[in-house]
Automatic annotation (TrEMBL):
Protein name: Uncharacterized protein
Region (Disordered): 136-176
Phylogenetic placement of the source organism: Bacteria, Pseudomonadati, Bacteroidota, Sphingobacteriia, Sphingobacteriales
Pfam families listed in its UniProt record: DUF5606, DUF6852
Low complexity: compositionally biased ranges: 152-176
Organism (species): Pedobacter frigoris
Compositionally biased spans, kind Basic and acidic residues: 136-148
Highest taxon above the source species: Bacteria
Transmembrane spans: none
Length: 176
């Protein structure tokens, strides 16, 4: 599943695709049928990438990507986002059995189900997630497997450097 570039914007319903960035903010395109493009201010708008969102779990947090994958594999019908709380809680016990029932509210469940209904029409579920590559061009997984080489320290190097002190030269001329 590839959710890279899909974000939720605070204060706005729905999901957006991150198109670019300019000096005024992030350029976003809505994922609904209207395809509205907006510029979200960098300083005041909070963006949350869907691949970074987690759900409270009993032992450890659950990734939203895994929960959405479980929803696609669910045998029963996915309830509507406007369904009542008990229906959503019963559904969430099926798709995310390890979620913390005290911390995950029905409003959170409604939001996740509504996001699923937006995303199910897109080819995101069939795409593979792009592999993370660092600035050196090495896959992050390969880099984690390799042990870092110890860099030898040069011998007899002194770390003292004296910068010349600035002289305070404030002179004033009176009555010239």
């Amino acid at each position: 599943m590839n959710l890279r570039g899909i974000v939720a914007v605070s204060g706005r319903p729905g999901l957006f695709k991150l198109v670019g960035q300019n000096k005024g903010g992030y350029v976003l395109e809505s994922l609904d049928a209207q395809k509205v493009k907006i510029v979200a201010n960098i300083t005041t708008t909070k963006l949350a990438s869907l691949e970074d969102i987690t759900i409270y779990g009993e032992d450890e947090d659950l990734k939203l990507v895994d929960v959405l994958a479980n929803i696609t594999a669910a045998k029963g019908a996915v309830p509507d986002a406007k369904a009542d709380g008990p229906t959503l809680k019963k559904f969430f016990l099926e798709v995310a059995p390890a979620h913390d029932q005290e911390k995950v509210y029905a409003s959170d469940m409604k939001k996740i189900v509504s996001w699923f209904h937006i995303l199910k029409e897109l080819p995101l579920f069939t795409e593979a997630a792009p592999e993370a590559i660092d600035q050196d061009g090495v896959k992050v997984e390969e880099k984690a497997e390799k042990k870092p080489k110890a860099t030898p320290k040069p011998a007899n190097v002194k770390a003292t450097s004296k910068a010349p002190a600035k002289k305070a030269s404030m002179t004033s001329k009176k009555g010239v």
